[in-house]
Automatic annotation (TrEMBL):
Residues 123-492 form the GH18 domain. Keywords: Glycosidase, Hydrolase, Membrane, Transmembrane, Transmembrane helix. Coiled coil: none annotated. Belongs to the glycosyl hydrolase 18 family. Pfam families: Glyco_hydro_18. The chain crosses the membrane at residues 26-48. GO terms for molecular function: chitin binding; hydrolase activity, hydrolyzing O-glycosyl compounds. The lineage of its organism: Bacteria, Pseudomonadati, Spirochaetota, Spirochaetia, Leptospirales. Residues 520-532 have a biased composition (Basic and acidic residues). PROSITE patterns: GH18_1, GH18_2. This is Hydrolase. It comes from Leptospira langatensis. GO terms for biological process: carbohydrate metabolic process.
């Protein structure tokens, strides 16, 4: 039919007349529309209330939440301070869901809208700090987590919230991609490091002196790095802080943890080693609201600011820096190994009572030191290649019983740098190797790390069923036998080890001493590079 033709109507029928709707007034239309909206709203509300009051839903009294710490730097664009009508609408919508809580979780499934950092099922994780990128490329397949040691603070005696990096922007993009191509499952969690001394402070960056604005900027800068370069989290290594910074450091960790976890990332915190005190006491520190619970023996500034139990509530990794027991100095406790098992066992005993086992890592050294025994000569660092050279000059002991070595050596009466601390070594045999030799008319001893000592330490750590270990640090100049052992570890080819029997800490053992002012620390060579 041609649509332009007139429609045909039989003669005995009348042509239908189109329906002409009756015109309604604007007022009538408005009243009807308003009534419909009101009734729809009431129906929706009653339906939601019915869901809330379902008899099969468990009713619980609302929990009393701690007062949140508010970030003040609202001028910086970030997710730290959400605002606006959209956020208000989301809060209203969530409040109407059955048994919803203020954090976005529901009672039925205990499911949170905030992404949680994904964990793998690895029983014992291998991790390492590193600044030697070439060494990391060659061995990244041996690690579950790696910590590029690349970030530091701008500013020395004061902070402004800014970071700097040893890697440029293009390097960070390229190296993250390269490391992931070599080991797609590795977690890349870079470290921000600062050792506090009279020339380097950790104050405004954690909000001390009322500078929450700088703290918030510092957090924003950290999040920017994590977001921009696709890191799997961040590792906070703020060391040697004076005791008045404890509470501000904890506030900083709480805030950073919330933001890191919103992104489904991991927060790692490096802490000073602690062993149990013979007697617990409370220590007042100017500027703190609460006294410090001194249930640990190491009563110098660094350990006082690292509360294991508190940090473990907010961090995914608590990495105890179990090294520098015998630092590079001639005063107490003098020459000896950096991380003997007898000391590590006491650290684990203290830490496991305060940190969930799977969050707890022991960080062990790949270096040692070389001391003069009967002259005032320079103390030297010792790595694998150094040890191979020294072994040509003297006698290597492994295991090392220092008191036995002294008893067997007719010249030991002159070893005053060691003999005055002989009580430290009474009754102990160390798994660590040592080299006793003569150089430039002086008797010397060098402790170092090799595969056998490393394997003994790993056997100890595995027996305690903790989360894993970290190296300070991965270098090309480490015993290559360590990599052979790690190959067996990551491929699950090592035999199981018996579980450790809980025992009371041997508190008379030597504790880590306070550093001397200006003393060159284990990380000082890296710090000098970082702060430039």
């Amino acid at each position: 039919m041609n649509p332009n033709d007139e429609p045909f109507t039989p003669e005995d029928l009348s042509r239908p007349v189109p329906y002409q709707p009756k015109k309604q007034s604007f007022l009538h239309t408005g009243i009807v529309s308003f009534t419909w909206i009101v009734l729809s709203g009431i129906s929706f509300y009653l339906g939601i209330q019915a869901l809330k009051e379902r008899p099969d839903q468990k009713q619980e009294a609302p929990a009393v939440a701690e007062a949140p710490i508010q970030l003040q730097n609202v001028g910086v664009k970030s997710e730290l301070v959400p605002s606006g009508a959209w956020e208000d609408l989301k809060k209203w919508w969530n409040s109407t869901l059955p048994n919803s809580s203020s954090d976005g979780s529901t009672e039925e499934g205990k499911t949170s809208v905030v992404p949680v950092a994904m964990e793998d099922d690895t029983a014992f994780r291998a991790s390492t700090w590193f600044s030697d990128y070439e060494a990391m490329k060659r061995t990244v397949h041996l690690y579950n987590e790696i910590h590029p040691f690349i970030y530091g603070f701008k500013g020395r005696e004061t902070n402004n919230g800014d970071l700097y990096s040893l890697w440029g922007s293009a390097q960070k993009h390229a190296r993250v991609a390269e490391l992931r191509s070599l080991n797609p499952r590795v977690k890349i969690i870079p470290t921000i490091f600062r050792w506090e001394n009279k020339n380097e402070k950790i104050a405004e960056n954690i909000g001390l002196n009322g500078r929450n604005d700088i703290r918030d900027k510092h957090i924003q800068n950290i999040l920017y790095e994590v977001d921009t370069y696709g890191f799997d989290g961040i590792d906070i290594d703020y060391e040697g802080m004076s005791c008045e910074k404890k509470e501000k450091f904890e506030e900083f960790i709480v805030l950073l943890s919330k933001e890191i976890h919103k992104r489904g990332k991991l927060l790692s915190v490096a802490v000073h080693p602690k062993t149990a005190a013979k007697k617990t006491s409370l220590k007042a520190c100017k500027g703190l609201k609460e006294k410090i619970n001194m249930d640990f023996a190491e009563n110098w500034r660094g350990p006082m600011t690292h509360d294991y139990a508190f940090l473990a509530k907010h961090a995914d990794r608590v990495k105890v820096m179990a090294y520098e027991l015998h630092p590079r100095k001639y005063r107490n406790p003098g020459p000896g190994p950096q991380a003997p098992n007898v000391w590590i066992r006491n650290i684990i005993t203290y830490a496991k009572e305060r940190v969930p086992a799977k969050k707890l890592y022991m960080a062990i050294p790949t270096y040692g030191y070389d001391w003069a025994l009967n002259c005032n000569a320079k103390i030297k660092s010792v790595y694998w290649s150094d040890a191979l050279k020294r072994q040509q000059l003297g006698i290597t002991k492994q295991p090392t019983n220092i008191n036995q070595v002294m008893a067997d050596n007719k010249n030991s009466s002159s070893w005053t740098n060691l003999s005055k601390f002989s009580w430290v070594h009474e009754g102990k045999t160390y798994e660590d190797p040592s080299i006793w030799y003569k150089s430039e008319g002086c008797d010397r001893v060098a402790f170092f790390m090799n595969r056998k000592a490393f394997e003994d330490k790993m056997t100890l750590l595995r027996s305690y069923d903790i989360g894993g270990f970290s190296f300070w640090q991965l270098l090309s100049d480490n015993d290559p036998g360590i990599n052979t052992y790690l190959e067996l570890l990551v491929t699950n080819k090592l035999p199981p080890v018996p579980k450790a029997v809980p025992e009371k800490a041997n508190t008379p053992d030597v504790k880590q001493a306070a550093p001397e002012e200006g003393q060159e620390e284990a990380k000082s060579s890296v710090e000098e590079v970082v702060k430039k």
